[in-house]
Task: structure prediction
Amino acid sequence: MKAKDPTIIEHSHGGRRKNAGRKTQYQEKTVVMRVPESKVLEIKAWLQPKPEDDRIKNIELHPIQIRTQLDIPYPLESVAAGFPSPAQDYTEDFIDLNEYLIHNPLSTFVLRVNSLSMKNAGIDIDDQIIIDRSLNAEHGDIVLALINNEFTVKRLMKEKQNNAQTKIWLKAENPEYPDSYLRSEEQLIIWGVVTCILKKLR
Result:
């Protein structure tokens, strides 16, 4: 029997190997299909995982406590952005932020937002919103809603139906989050209306 040449290195390339090939993200068999080229991006976006609804049971609402009056001077004339006005040198009026932001102190609360579901309405994570419980919520208002003891911030939508009834649902201002349509067993309570977004730029 001829001995193996020690200078020859044997390789195991070729053939099917265990766990080789592209890994699938789905836990079931996949199929290949043809779609119009114009629909590729739309279908890819649809296949992306969607965030779950941002309803939560416990939130930290802080009541408003007006301790001091803060008068901030401002010019009587409006100023176009980027173009200073001579009126800035002649301040003749003041604005009190307490009166400007808070109309009903006893029914006003502050909530820190922890979701991006209202991003396109200018509300980001860690923004603080002012909520007034004394206001009647109207179509298009951003509200703090309570659905089956879970809180969510959404835009209130009221649509007239052909049967003279009104369909009420909550709109997320971020296409990655679902809108809220009430099921027959769910109860909706509008806890308060969002009147202001407190956002620091720096």
